[in-house]
Amino acid sequence: MSAIRLSNLDISYGDTKVVHGVSLDVSEGESFALVGESGSGKSTILRAIAGLAPDWTGEIAVLGALRSHGIERAVARQVQMVFQDPYGSLHPRKTIDAVLSEPLDINGIGNQGERVEAMLAAVGLDQRFRFRFPHQLSGGQRQRVAIARALMLGPKVLLLDEPTSALDVSVQAEILNLLKRLRREQGLTYLLVTHNLPVVSFLCDRLAVMRHGRVVEVADVGLLKRGQLAEPYSRELLAATEGRAGVIA
Amino acid sequence: MTTRDWLLEDSPTSRWQANVGRAYRVFTALLRNPLSVLGGVIILVLLLTAILAPWLAPYSATGQDLANRLAPPSGEHWMGTDELGRDIFSRVIWGSQITLTIVGLVALISAPLGLLVGAVSGYFGGWTDRILMGFTDIFLSMPKLILALAFVAALGPGINNAIIAIAITSWPAYARIARAETLTIRNAEFIAAVRLQGASPLRVIVRHVLPLCTSSMIIRVTLDMAGVILTAAGLGFIGLGAQPPLPEWGAMISRGRTFILDQWWVATMPGFAIIIVSLGFCFLGDGLRDVLDPKSEGK
Amino acid sequence: MAPMLEVKNLRVSFPTHRGRVEVVKGISFDLGRERLGIVGESGSGKSLTGRSILKLIRKPGLVTADKMAFDGIDLRTQSEKQMRAIRGARISMVMQDPKFSLNPVMTVGEQIAEALVAHEKLPRREMNERILAMLEAVRINDPKRVAGLYPHEVSGGMGQRVMIAMMLIPEPELLIADEPTSALDVSVQAQVLDIIDDLVTRKGMGLILISHDLNLVSRYCDRILVMNSGVVVEECAAGELERAQHPYTRGLLAAMPTIDETRDELPVLDRTQWAGT
After folding, report:
1. Which chains form contacts with chain A, at 3 or more CB pairs under 8 Å?
2. From CA C207, how far away is CA C167, in angstroms rounded?
3. Which one, of A113, A53, A112, A49, lies nearest residue A81 by Cα?
4. Overall pTM > 0.90
5. Per-residue pLDDT tens digits for C59-91
6. So what's the ipTM on this one?
7. Nearest Cα to A48, choosing from A168, A225, A213, A173?
8. Which of A122, A134, B11, B172 can bridge A128 by disulfide, Cβ–Cβ 3.0-4.6 Å?
C-alpha cells in the first residue's frame, strides 16, 4: 500500500499557484526525498499533506484514505511533521515535558509521564532535560525534542522539512543517525524535503527533483550516488553540490 | 541544598519546580533595577495601607469637627484638616482602599477582555478580525476621559459606574496589543505543530497564544495604572466618580481647590498621594518591561 | 614585508550572571594579501573574531589583544570616529543575510552610491559609471535596471551580489565575509563565491572568509584556521585539509555525508575528547 499518494496536485498561496500538477507515490516504509532550490514548491507540498496549506486541488491520499483540506485528528495520529528551525518550533514558555505531553493531552491518551520518559530515551535525551525550557537546550537537543514531539502519537508517516539544515555539521550527523535508527526501529515512512543531496544519499531510497513547482525527475537514490540522474536540471544541482565537495571528496 | 539552589537548578525534576524557578529568575532580575524596586515598594506600601487602614488611620475618614476646620498640618493632624474639619491624613489612608479597588477591578475587567478579543481577532483573521477590530477602533477613536464621562453620565455617578466606565474605555488598547502579538505568534512553527496534533482553535489560543501575550499585557497594564488612577481622580474631580463623603483622592482635590490659595494642604496632600502611587506603577512597569521582554530571555 | 593584518592573543568576553565568560580565548594570526578561511561550528567564536577586527563588538562585550594592527595602524587605540573611516574604505564586511543588511526604502543604486560617497567625493556622472561598472563586476546582467530596484524586488542571490558590490566599491584592502552564502541556494552560492574570489584575486585584496562549511572554505581559501570553543585547534594550507591532524577537524570531515554515501551510520564527534563542551 502507498503511504502517500499525490495525484494532479495544484497548490496555491493566495492568487499565486506554487505547485503545478504534481503526482507522486511513496510506498509504506520508504524514505523519499523532495529536492530542489528555494521556491521550487517542495516545502509547500509537505505543508499541504500536513494540512497547513489548505488551498489545493487534486488528490492527497494518506495510507490509502483520501485527505480533506483541513487538519483532522485521525490524520494527526498517522502523519506528523518536523520543522526546519529548531529555535522556532518549540514554545518558548513551555518545558520539554509540557511540549511532549501536549499531543497526548489533546488526543486523550493517559499514562503521560511514562510515555514522555520513554520517548526522551528513544531520541537519546537524558531525563534531566525533561523539565528544562527550550532556551536551556542547544539546537541539536531542540531538534531531538521536535522529533520526539512528532513521534508522541505514534504516527506511521513523518514529514521532515529540512530537519538538519539549521544545524552544525557534527550535530547534523547525530540527527541523521537518529532519524535512520528511528525509521528502522519503528518502521516509519519518511518524506524528506531538503536541498542537500548528500543527506538524501545517506537517508533516502528514492528522490524527486523539483523546479518551479513541478517534478522534473523521480529517481532511485542509487542513480544519485553514481551521478546518473537523467534530467539536465538534476545534473546541474548535482554539479553544484559536487563542485563544492570536490576538493575533499 | 538550599531553596536558592533548588530554584536555580539547571535540571528541575518537576514542571512546578521549572516554573517556580523561572519566576524566581524574573524576580531576581527585577531586584537588580533600583527604580523598579522603588516602584514595587510603593505598590506594596499602598497595599498594606489599604489592608491596615482601620488600624493606621488616627481619625475616622468621615468624622467632622467643625471647630477645627481648615487647620494647617501639625503634630495632631499631620496633613491638616479639610473644610469640614476631617483629618486629611486619615482620609488619604482610607482613600487608598478606593484607589486600589478601582485599579484592581479595572485591570481584572479590561485586561482579560482585551486579551481575548485581540487573540481571537488575530488568530482567526478574516471577517472575525474585521468585525472585532472595527468595534475596537470605534472605542479607540474617542478620547478616553470623554467616553468615560459619557458612560458615567448614562449610568449615573458613583464609584462602581466609574470603574465600569474606565474598564470599558481601556480594553481596546489591550485588544490591539494582543492582536499584534497574536499575528506574529500565529504563524510560528510551534503553533503549526500543536495544530497538527489536532488541537482545537480554542486550545491553541488559550494554552499556546495567550501565555505569550500576557507578559506584554502585564507591562502595559502596570504602566496604564497611573492613567487609570488619574482618570478616576478626574471623574472624582468633576463630581462624577466617588460621591461625598467617600475619601476618594480626586474628589478630595476637587473639594480643596476652593481653598487652594490660602489652605494649600487640602488639595495638595491627596495630590501627592496620586503622584506617588502613579510613579510607583510607572517604575514597576518599566522594570517589568526590561525583565519580561521575551527577546531578552535566555541570555 | 609586514603582514597587512596582525592579531595576537585576541580575547572576547561577555558578562553573564556567573561572571565573565570568554568566548574567544586568545587567538593569533597574520594575514597578508591572501585568502584566509576561519571555520568552526556555531559558538566557536569565529564570527566574533571577524567582528572584533572591525571593533563591532558592543558593550558589555569586551575585546582585548596584545596586538591588533592593520597596515601599521593599531586598531585597539582607534576611536569610534577613526574606525568609521577605516570601515568600508579599507576593511569591508559582508554579512550573512542581505535581507537584513540592505535598507528596504532605498534603491540598490542609491545604497551603493551611499557607500561610495561616504569615503570619496566624485562628480555625479563618474559616480554613476562607477556604480554600473561595479554591478557589472558582480555579474549583474542589466545593471541599469537593477540599480533602480528596491531590495525586496531582487532575489536572495542578487541581493548578496548587491551587498558585495556595496562593500567593494570603495576598493577596500581587506574583505571580511561572514557566512556570505549560507542563506543562498547551492547553485547561487558557487556563483557568489566565484565573484568574491575573482574580485579579491584581481585587486590583490586580503580576504577573511568565515564559514561553518569546511568544503567551501577549502575551495576558496589559501589557508584555513579551524576554531572550536574560542581557540584555533588547527591551522593548515587549504590543500592539506584532508591530512588534518586534530581530532576535531578529522571528526568534522568524517561527520559530513557524501554524495556517494555508503556508511550506515555517520561518525559522531566525541565532544569530551578536547577542551570545551
Report:
1. B, C
2. 12
3. A49
4. no
5. 888 899 999 999 888 998 889 889 888 888 889
6. 0.89
7. A213
8. B11
Q: Tell whether A177 is within 8 A of chain C (Cβ).
A: yes
Q: Is A33 on the interface with C (CB under 8 A)?
A: no
Q: With an 8 Å Cβ cutoff, are A80 and B203 in contact?
A: no
Q: What are the pLDDT digits (tens) for B246-276?
A: 888 888 888 888 888 888 888 888 889 989 9
C contacts of A227 (beta carbons < 8 Å):
259-260
Task: Give phi and psi for A27, each to the nearest 5.
Answer: -85, 165
- 3-state SS, one letter per residue, for chain A: CEEEEEEEEEEEECCEEEEEEEEEEEECCCEEEEECCCCCCHHHHHHHHHCCCCCEEEEEEECCEECCCCCCHHHHCCEEEECCCCCCCCCCCCCHHHHHHHHHHHCCCCCHHHHHHHHHHHCCCCHHHCCCCHHHCCHHHHHHHHHHHHHCCCCCEEEEECCCCCCCHHHHHHHHHHHHHHHHHHCCEEEEEECCHHHHHHHCCEEEEEECCEEEEEEEHHHHHCCCCCCHHHHHHHHHHHHHHCCCC
- A-chain residues within 8 Å CB-CB of C97? none
Burial class (CB in 10 A: 0-12, 13-18, 19+), C125: exposed
| Inter-chain CB proximity A89 and B193 less than 8 Å | yes
Residue B170 grid cell: 481601556
Which residues of chain C are within 8 Å of residue A248 when distances are taken between CB atoms? 214-215, 218, 241-242, 253
| Chain B nearest CA to A76, separation (Å) | 5
Cell, residue B185: 505568534
Inter-chain residue contact A80 with B190, CB threshold 8 Å: no
